[in-house]
Amino acid sequence: MGTTALETARALTHHIRASAADIERTAQLTASVVEQLFESGMFGLLLPKDLGGAETPLPDFIEIVEQLSFADASVAWSIAQANVFSTHASRLSPHAANEIFGNAATAMVHGPPKTTTAIRVDGGFKVTGTWGFGTGIGHSSWLAGRCDIEGEKGTYLLVMFPKERATIIDNWDVRGLTGTGSHDFAVDDLFVPLAHTMSAEAEAHHDSPLYHLPVVSMFAVSFAAVALGTSLMMFDHLLSLAKSKTADHMRHTLAVDPHMHEQVGMTRAVWSAARHYLHGEVDDVWADLLPGRAPTMEHRVRLRLCGTHALREARRVADLCWEMAGTSEIHTGSEFHRRYQDMIVISQHLQARTAHYPTVGRYTLGDTVKLGLLI
Prior knowledge:
By secondary structure, the protein is α+β, with helices and mostly antiparallel strands. It folds into three domains: 5-101, Acyl-CoA dehydrogenase/oxidase, N-terminal domain (Butyryl-Coa Dehydrogenase, subunit A, domain 1), CATH 1.10.540; 108-199, Butyryl-CoA Dehydrogenase, subunit A, domain 2, CATH 2.40.110.10; 213-364, Butyryl-CoA Dehydrogenase, subunit A, domain 3 (Up-down Bundle). Helix content is 47%, strand content 15%. It is built from eleven helices and eight strands. It has helices at 5-18, 20-26, 31-39, 58-71, 73-86, 94-101, 215-244, 258-289, 297-325, 335-346, 356-364; strands spanning 108-111, 113-121, 124-134, 142-148, 156-162, 167-169, 183-193, 197-199. Strand 2 (113-121) and strand 3 form a beta hairpin. Helix 4 (58-71) packs antiparallel against helix 5 (73-86) and helix 9 (297-325) packs antiparallel against helix 11. The longest helix has 32 residues, at 258-289.
């Protein structure tokens, strides 16, 4: 029996963790980590098989992302971003999909629009725009961004172009997910052929549910997996710390403190409940879609809710671990401190907003909920 992708991700853990300091210092994944991720197929997990990808089932994919996050959050975030976005390959023409995604060393980066415009011209569009948060732009080969179409209010286009055609704006200066190297990027009056664009209504040409679920739903559960792996690493570190640390004004280690016992028990319950909810919902939705059913609003709501909940509960676990650790891990350079900064940034993302709860609540009470960025 061959090695599974999850086993491969576990095998990468040691090298990724050993590279963490360099990833943090350089604000991008190291060349050796990127090479291993490409060679092991981590960037092709969600690509269609006819493009050399693995078409990994979504339940397996989020488990792989969680494992990678246990090694390093920036690595896992980059893999989640690139893979979920690569599902758009199924919505391009076969020729364009092969041109962009057919190379085994391809990673596409996308970012939310800041100011953009696309003007229709013969054979395609002239595009001018700036996009933010280009996760993994250092190891990418293609870039993509959403564009407004000039003169066509309410319609937008996804445009894709080689990285060398864009200007990279070096403005990623953060504490948390530092290694994602999420710089802005821009183009000015760039011609993008029609084949390298995609409308919001584009339909997939492949049968797998991977290519019929909206990417926003897949981002919701994938980023939740990053959060769970990150917070688990903090919890494991805390357990080790408790067995060796004697706090000020105490005679015994934290491991024998009744208050610590209560906090550790509660934290374990919070993390385990969030994980089981996430994986249980993803498993159930995936099984329901496998016969070839199209995703319904109910499916989308379930993935939205479990993803948001797991993200927020993972942040709660991180906060509890941080409080219990005291001053031991507050110094810059501490892995525990770095993980906490990662968790703070993860929980600031769109996917973790509390605004998702009233949206789900309206749906649950029978009100109409519009499809969009949140569902």
